[in-house]
């Protein structure tokens, strides 16, 4: 796939795993908006990409020195394989690890052209080569299509509320953009005990889903001013935590002003390189207090968070199945992008 082209199904070569590398037989991989950003050249120009990064599967072959997983293990793939020794890890902040591990060898087209794996994974494939630390073993009782979503969007949303936003019991939360990421932020806010959860989107169908995930109020920003609506839903004050899950300066500005004094804005939507910050008066930034916090991957630590969240799922306390809108084949990713753009799905999941 080149810039601006539709995705194509190709035969690829996957090298034997080297030291610290693992081949995973992918069982399921969700279609995330970030894959579409890659296809449109919004993340980098390192075409051709091997897309797909929200995946679960079975470890098939391990390279020398791999000790944490063995063939047959059921794993969720992650794009934060913590190094343990960078300056963030040394400060006991592995959620910011600045030297996350990926496979060092490249998967290639059959003519030898190296592929750039999306988020260092590349999982719209039958077999993917990843680093050992990118594999998090979880309970094999779980449905790969559901728990694979923890590998990116759902974890990013849950963590935006529970980790970056530190939503607490009784808080009010507003979520701007109710796709897979935003709805996961709603679920995270509910799990954390938020009392008021305002869903904001421009699509009524998305708002219905947001309510089913636990939103107490739904606001269609194409019809009403979302800042006013969030204030009305929160006693006139604004929300304690506003989560931007679109990736757009206009919604960031709404999230900024829909927040109560000393509240937190969490930016989990991914902007394109051309987007600029909203033009805010500095006195508004200072005078409103609080915090503006970007959230990479929901500040998760996969080895800590994935197994625990899979347990909640198996106990019926985390509705991951409800994020799976449809199961599709490897050759249907382009159609899945179109359905995502038309707002028809939360997650299309490729199953193998
Ligand atoms: N920070 C991270 O680690 C991380 C991880 C995964 C995805 N993301 C990003 O999160 C964002 C959302 O991903 P997704 O998979 O949920 O995408 P999605 O396309 O499924 O959802 C986006 C939602 O935003 C809504 N929307 C669009 N314009 C809006 C507006 N002006 N006001 C309110 N709502 C609006 C759409 O109707 C849609 O429901 C993307 O930018 C994606 O790249 C970030
Ligand atoms: Zn590190
Ligand atoms: Zn993603």
Number of strands: 17
Q: How much strand?
A: 15-25%
In whole angstroms, the N-to-C terminal distance is 21 Å
CATH class of the largest domain: Alpha Beta
Q: Do you know the CATH topology of the largest domain?
A: Quinone Oxidoreductase, Chain A, domain 1
Outline the structure in words:
The protein is of the alpha/beta class and 352 residues long. It folds into 2 domains: 12-151 and 319-351, Quinone Oxidoreductase, Chain A, domain 1; 157-296, NAD(P)-binding Rossmann-like Domain (Rossmann fold, 3-Layer(aba) Sandwich), CATH 3.40.50. The protein is 27% helix and 24% strand. It has 11 helices and 17 strands. β11, α6 and β12 (217-220) form a beta-alpha-beta unit. α4 (153-164) packs parallel to α5 (180-191). The chain is globular, with a radius of gyration of 20 Å. Bound molecules: nicotinamide-adenine-dinucleotide and zinc ion (2 copies). One zinc ion is lined by residues 32, 34, 53-54, 152-153.
């Amino acid at each position: 796939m080149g810039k601006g082209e539709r995705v194509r199904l190709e035969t690829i070569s996957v090298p034997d795993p080297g030291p610290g590398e693992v081949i995973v037989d992918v069982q399921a991989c969700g279609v995330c908006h970030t894959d579409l950003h890659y296809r449109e050249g919004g993340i980098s120009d390192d075409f051709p990409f091997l897309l797909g990064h929200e995946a679960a599967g079975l470890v098939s072959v391990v390279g020398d020195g791999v000790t944490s997983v063995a063939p047959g293990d059921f794993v969720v793939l992650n794009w934060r394989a913590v190094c343990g020794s960078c300056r963030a890890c040394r400060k006991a902040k592995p959620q910011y690890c600045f030297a996350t591990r990926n496979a060092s060898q490249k998967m290639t087209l059959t003519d030898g052209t190296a592929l750039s794996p999306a988020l260092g994974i590349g999982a719209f494939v039958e077999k993917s080569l990843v680093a050992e630390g990118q594999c998090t073993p979880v309970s094999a009782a779980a449905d790969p299509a559901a728990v694979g979503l923890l590998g990116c969007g759902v974890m990013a949303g849950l963590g935006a509320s529970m980790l970056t936003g530190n939503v607490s019991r009784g808080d009010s939360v507003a979520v701007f953009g109710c796709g897979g990421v935003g709805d996961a932020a709603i679920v995270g806010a509910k799990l954390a005990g938020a009392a008021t959860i305002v869903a904001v989107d421009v699509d009524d169908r998305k708002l219905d889903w947001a309510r089913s995930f636990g939103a107490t109020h739904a606001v269609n920003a194409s019809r009403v001013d979302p800042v006013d609506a969030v204030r009305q839903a929160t006693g006139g004050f604004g929300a304690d935590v506003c989560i931007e899950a679109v990736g757009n300066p206009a919604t960031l500005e709404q999230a900024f002003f829909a927040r109560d004094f000393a509240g937190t804005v969490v930016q989990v939507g991914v902007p394109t390189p051309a987007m600029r910050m909203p033009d805010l008066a500095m006195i508004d930034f200072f005078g409103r207090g609080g915090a503006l916090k970007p959230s990479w991957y929901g500040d998760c630590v996969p080895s800590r968070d994935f197994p625990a969240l899979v347990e909640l799922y198996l106990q019926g306390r985390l509705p991951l199945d409800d994020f799976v809108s449809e199961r599709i084949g490897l050759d249907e990713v382009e159609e899945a992008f179109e359905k995502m753009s038309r707002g028809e799905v939360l997650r299309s999941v490729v199953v193998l």
